Each structure stands twice: as C-alpha cells, then as structure tokens.
C-alpha cells in the first residue's frame, strides 16, 4: 500500500487543543480543548454527549472553532500514553482495512480498567512486639517473616505451614504489622541465559542469522522454514534471548491459545520463568495487569493471540509469528485483518525484526522468501535421530471400511500393531462432534440451524445438536420435527466423536481421549488430553486440527488420517494449500523421537496432486504447481483480492443493495468486479448474505479503488457492509 496516503503526525502538538480519537465508529478524531499541549497518544477522558469516553490525543485540530466553543478533555492521572508507533499502526490498519480509525483504536484499548488508579493490597511484616505466648506454630511464622518481605495472611500461613488463624493471632498481638503493597506483584523477568541450549549446526547457523538481525536494530522479515521436528522454537528462542539482552520487548504470536501449554513450559525451561500471556480467556484483572506491565515496559515477553498485536509496547525489539500459515491469524469479525501481515507492518513501523516460523509456509511467505524479499532460513533435518515418517495413501475404493464405519482394514491393522507393541497412535479428522448431518430416515428432513443455512452438528455425548456458526443448540429431538416419526433421525457421515466410538468398539482396552476445539470439549479438556498424550497416560488421541500443530509426542509412531478428501471442494482458492498444510502438520506428529513413524491417509482420490505431493514428500513441487495455478487466475500473491459482504435481516434489501453496489463500481484498468452472488452460507445468524469480489493486479491501489466506489453508494441502514481485504475464507 501507498504510505503517502497516510498523513504523518508530529509526536507533540504546540497548542492546548487537539483532535481526540475516540474508540467508536466515527469518521475521524473530534476537536477538544486541553489544559496544556499534549503528545500524540496521551490518553484523555473526553465528554461525548451525555457520556464520557476514553480517547487518545491524535492529531492537530481539523476545525477552526474558537477555544471557547470546544469542549475540554481531561488528561488521565499519570498521563499514560500510547507509543507513537502504535498510533501510526492504528492509522495504518484503519486505512488498509477501510475501517474508521476509532474502531481500530478500540482494539488497542481493550483493557478498560487498565488506567484506573492502582489499589493497594494489605500485607504484613514483623512488628516490634514479641508475643507473650509462644507455640511451635507461632515460632514457625516468626521465622518465616524474618526475611522482611511483606506478604498476605494466606501467603504467610502457607510459608509457615500454619492455619491463617495463627497468623491473625500474631497480628492481634502486634507481632505482625500491616503495610501496603502494590496491587500486582511484579512480573518475573525472563533470563536470556537461564539455560544454555544445545543446537545442531543447522539450528546454530539460523540462530546466528536471526541474532544478527536483532543486533542491527532494523526492520527485516525472516522466514524460519523448518520441517516438523527440526527445532524451530529452540532456534528462534535464541533471537528472543538476544532481544532480552538488548533490553527490548518481545511479542510472540500464536494462532490458537490451546496450543501454548507445552510452549509455556518450554519457554520456562529456557528462560527460567513463564512469559506474560494475552488472549481472550484472561480475566479483567489479568488483562489490567498485563496491559499496564506492557505499557510500563515491565512485561518483557508476551505470548498472545492475534489481539496482542495492539498492545502498547514501548520498546518492541522482535515479533515472532509462530505457525505463520495458520488461518486462525485471520480475524473474521469486526475489524477484518490478517495478524501475520499486520505483524509485518507493525515490525516496519517499530523498526524491529519479524520472524515468521512454519513447517509449511503460506504461499505468500514462500514467494516472498524465494524472491529474496524475506530472509530465508531453512531447517531441513529432524532433531536428534528422528527421521521423517513414511506416508502411505490408503485407497478407500479398494479397501473400504464396512458400511457405517470409517476405519479401513489397513488402518485397523496398523492400529493393532502399534497398540500391541506399546506405541502411541493418533487419528485425525477435521470434523467436530459426532456427525456433520442429521436427517430423518422417514421423510428425508435435514436438521438445519434456525439462524443459518447450515447443518446442525450432532454432539452425541451431550445429546445436543449445535450450529458451529452461530452457537445455536437444541436437545437432539426424539421425533422428526417435520413428519413427527419417532426415533427416525439418523446420523450421516463421521465426526471425531463417532470415530472415537468406533475405535472404542474395536479396542475396548485401549486408553483414548478426544481433542476438539468446540464448546463441548473446551480448551481445558483439550489441554488435558494433549498433556495426557505427552505423558503416555493414554494410547490414542483422536481429534481435529487442534492437535495437529506444535505438539511433541515422543512415543507416537502412527498417524491415521480418517478422511483426506474433506474441505477440498468448497471452491476456495486456498483449499489445496490448506489441505497440504494441515495433512503435512498432522503427519509431522509421527516419529519425532528414535522410533520411525508411519502416516496412513485414507482417501477416495489417491491421484489428487496434493495427496501425491504429500506422499512423495515433494513440497517444492507442490509449491511450484500452486504458484502456476495462482498466476494463471491472478490470485494472491500474484494479484489482489478484496471481498465485500453485505448482510441484512431483510433478504430483499440485501439483494437490492448488492445490485446497486455492483452497478456503481468504477471502471479501472486491472480491476474486475464479480457478483453479487449469494454467499456460500446464504443465511448466517439470521442475516441474509450477498458477496462481491474485487480482483485486481498487484499494482492497483485496492484501498483507493474501494474508497471511491463505496463513496458513490448510500446503503440503507438495514444493510451492513463488511470489507475483507485479502480474504482467506470465501463463506
Ligand atoms: Zn421426518
Ligand atoms: Zn446457526
């Protein structure tokens, strides 16, 4: 994108007035009077109608109103300030995604209570009085507090191994006296030299290249492209260590937070303590704590989901995007953005290095690395004695499972052998629940969500049907809602629960767990299953893609892919790339230690080019073919795409709006507009959806084109428009 489109802002303003950006969907900043000139990013409370809103000093006043006509904004106590690079980042994201800047600012002010004054905690230290009555318990307490550290009643009781009652008795006697402590204990500081890792020559060379980038204090992007099991994490930990030595802050992005359990432990082994975490499961109090610690520079390393990109780092020295190819980096609601791409932008604005790590890079990153735009660091050997697993395709047309079953005879045989020799196995199916479709055997009625044009997925264990789009749930009915036939509903197709049921019937003795990312198997249950697998407490893990990535199971020798043909037919340009990445990641779980692994992939299309590339282990051939295909259709990264998604509760209004929008599109060289067409899920959450797609040459300024276009059309209030620049899903 053209940066000239963004007006650079000075760091401080001379006048005691400024444009204040409020975290609301307004067109831009509003002018306010200030008590003194303030720097850009300074947080203020500004009156807005009858309310007050938290906002940030953003730019010079736009209007020419007299000071006397302007409302005045109050600076917060301590004048906390969003760093200038973060303000620039917010403007950049707003411009790129065509969102009002206030909506993007809202992402950076998510921890609402972070700016309230700190409350103090009550704690106790040794007082002057010596108690008249001495007991063994009291003596233990007094010796525990001898170090002079202030602690809470419960902390003292725990340290001295006494009941809180004993501690309170000593307080009453004056032997312990009250003192104040800050609300939050300081975060532990990761030590770059806590452990010295043993790296292979290949890892060492890559780590050296990365640390050189850190020392150079400039912007660069490196693709750390290492096969599964090659030790990418240990390698980029060396860059983290170097950034710590340089006294910089580090942000490590993860696609899904459930995958960080093992990661946090590995981090603690290397750096002596866990990093700060940032994700949607944090309590308000934890958010407040971490946000403040990031702002003050006390949080040195933050591991987080995509929203961590908007944290107010003041001395950012490195951004790592782990599993950079993951689709979970794309935020699909509200401000639609791709966290990997925005991480690169933030790195550029902060002038710091960015590391993208993956075993199966996205085609975009691969092309950038191959063209020399990114530094390309490859790890092609597995750590230690481990070798890559053998991958075999099972042709389901030749060796089908029995009707209503999903495990074919060759897979059953392999499972038998693995279990008999005391090894672990994994069965992968990228479908949550028991069955993806429930229909009536009597009348053929399909159970569909009442809010969406999507099938309800059966979750048999919880006796529920659920919509994976809007969260609608209902008890599985006994009667068909259409023809009223009793017990006529049948499950069609497999989900992980159903495969688990079949497995349990085959091997009643085997210890098994399910790992799935749905509301029924929450993150805690998934983490427990993954931990049990790592500790060898179970023999078989059956799950969706949640278990595909990043985990290390040394005893795992067999991976069975139950259905490789899923997801390849939804007309999505990234479908084959995604299938390749996913199956490659799953395969990579096998044989990570001394024992060799085997991967069996069940398919009805053994001649499919994706599966053939997987089986032959020829990644470069796959990428080359995929590049050719994308070039042919001018798809990213060789062209640009943007989607316009219209939605409304009023079906006719949305269709009319789609037609009006299509009619108004400006003619421009190198731009083609497709649509409107009904979206793949025509109704979601009760809203009817229409899509238009803009396809443009690389040289086209898509944002400028979209702005010109959208200014020409006034959509009715009942119709909502979402702009998705660089879409990755086409639903
Ligand atoms: Zn029926
Ligand atoms: Zn639904």
Explain how this protein is built:
It is built from 19 helices and 31 strands. The strands form 8 sheets. The chain has a 7-stranded parallel sheet, with helices on both faces. The chain has a 6-stranded parallel sheet with strand order 17-27-26-18-25-24, with helices on both faces. β26, α15 (575-587) and β27 (598-603) form a beta-alpha-beta unit. One zinc ion binds at residues 440, 442-443, 445, 480, 482-483, 485, 488.
Bound molecule types: zinc ion
Quote the distance from N terminus to C terminus: 26 Å
Strand content bin: 15-25%
Largest sheet report: 7 strands, parallel
What structural class should be given to the helix and strand makeup?
A: alpha/beta
| Fraction of residues in helix | 25-40%
Cα Rg: 29 Å
Provide the residue-averaged pLDDT: 89
Outline type:
globular
How are the strands ordered across the major sheet?
10-11-9-12-15-8-16
Q: How many strand units?
A: 31
What ranges have pLDDT less than 50 throughout 5 or more consecutive residues?
A: 1-5
- What is the tally of helical segments? 19
């Amino acid at each position: 994108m053209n940066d000239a489109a963004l007006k650079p802002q000075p760091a401080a303003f001379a006048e005691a007035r400024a444009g204040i950006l409020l975290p609301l969907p307004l067109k831009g900043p509003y002018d306010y009077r200030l008590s003194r000139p303030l720097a850009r990013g300074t947080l203020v409370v500004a009156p807005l109608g009858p309310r007050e809103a938290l906002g940030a000093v953003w730019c010079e006043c736009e209007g020419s109103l007299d000071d006397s006509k302007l409302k005045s904004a109050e600076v917060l106590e301590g004048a906390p300030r969003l760093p200038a690079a973060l303000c620039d980042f917010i403007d950049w994201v707003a411009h790129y995604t065509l969102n009002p800047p206030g909506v993007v600012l809202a992402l950076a002010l998510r921890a609402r209570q972070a700016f309230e004054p700190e409350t103090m905690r009550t704690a106790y230290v040794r007082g002057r009085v010596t108690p008249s009555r001495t007991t063994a318990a009291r003596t233990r307490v007094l010796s525990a507090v001898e170090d002079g550290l202030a602690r809470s009643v419960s902390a003292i009781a725990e340290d001295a191994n006494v009941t809180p009652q004993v501690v309170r008795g000593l307080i009453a006697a004056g032997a312990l006296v009250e003192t104040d402590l800050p609300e939050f204990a300081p975060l532990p500081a990761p030590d770059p030299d806590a452990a010295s890792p043993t790296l292979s020559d290949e890892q060492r060379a890559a780590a050296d290249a990365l640390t050189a980038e850190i020392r150079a204090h400039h912007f660069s992007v490196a693709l750390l492209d290492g096969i599964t099991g090659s030790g990418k994490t240990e390698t980029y930990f060396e860059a983290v260590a170097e950034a710590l030595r340089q006294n910089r802050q580090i942000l490590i992005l993860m696609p899904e937070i459930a995958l960080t359990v093992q990661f946090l432990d590995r981090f603690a082994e290397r750096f002596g303590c866990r990093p700060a975490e940032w994700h949607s499961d944090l309590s308000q109090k934890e958010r407040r704590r971490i946000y403040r610690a990031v702002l003050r520079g006390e949080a040195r390393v933050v591991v987080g989901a995509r929203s961590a990109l908007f944290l107010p780092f003041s001395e950012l020295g490195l951004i790592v995007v782990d599993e950079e190819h993951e689709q979970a980096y794309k935020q699909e609601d509200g401000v639609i953005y791709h966290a990997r791409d925005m991480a690169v932008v933030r790195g550029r604005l902060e002038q710091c290095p960015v590391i993208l790590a993956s075993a199966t890079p996205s085609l975009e990153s691969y092309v950038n690395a191959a063209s020399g735009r990114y530094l390309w660091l490859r790890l092609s050997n597995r750590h230690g004695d481990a070798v890559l697993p053998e991958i075999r395709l099972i042709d389901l047309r030749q060796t089908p499972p029995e009707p209503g079953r999903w495990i074919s005879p060759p897979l059953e045989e392999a499972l038998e052998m693995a279990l008999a020799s005391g090894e672990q196995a994994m069965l992968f199916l990228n479908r949550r629940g028991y069955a993806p479709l429930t229909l009536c055997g009597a009348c053929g009625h399909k159970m569909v969500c009442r809010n969406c044009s999507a099938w309800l997925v059966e979750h048999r264990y919880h006796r529920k049907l659920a919509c994976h789009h809007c969260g609608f749930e209902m008890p599985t009915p006994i009667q068909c809602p259409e023809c009223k036939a009793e017990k006529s509903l049948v499950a069609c197709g497999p989900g992980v629960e159903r495969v688990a049921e079949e497995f349990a019937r085959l091997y009643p003795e085997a210890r098994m767990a399910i790992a799935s990312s749905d509301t029924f198997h929450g993150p805690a249950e998934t983490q427990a299953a993954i931990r049990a697998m790592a500790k060898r407490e179970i023999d078989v893990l059956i799950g969706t893609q949640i278990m595909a990535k990043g985990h290390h199971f040394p005893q795992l020798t067999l991976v069975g892919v139950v259905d490789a043909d899923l997801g390849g037919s939804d007309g999505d340009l990234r479908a084959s790339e995604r299938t390749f990445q996913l199956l490659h990641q799953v395969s990579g779980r096998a044989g990570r230690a001394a024992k060799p692994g085997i991967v069996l992939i069940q398919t009805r299309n053994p001649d499919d080019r994706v599966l053939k590339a997987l089986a032959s282990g020829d990644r470069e051939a796959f990428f080359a073919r995929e590049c050719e295909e994308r070039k042919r259709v001018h798809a990213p990264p060789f062209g640009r795409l943007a989607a316009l998604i219209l939605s409304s509760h009023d079906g006719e209004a949305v269709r009319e709006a789609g037609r009006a929008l299509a009619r108004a599109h400006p003619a421009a060289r190198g731009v083609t507009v497709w649509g409107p067409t009904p979206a793949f899920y025509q109704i979601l959450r009760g809203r009817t959806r229409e899509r238009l797609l803009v396809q443009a040459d690389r040289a086209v300024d898509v944002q400028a084109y979209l702005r010109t276009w959208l200014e020409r059309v006034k959509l009715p209030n009942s119709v909502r428009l979402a702009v998705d620049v660089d879409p990755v899903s086409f639903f």
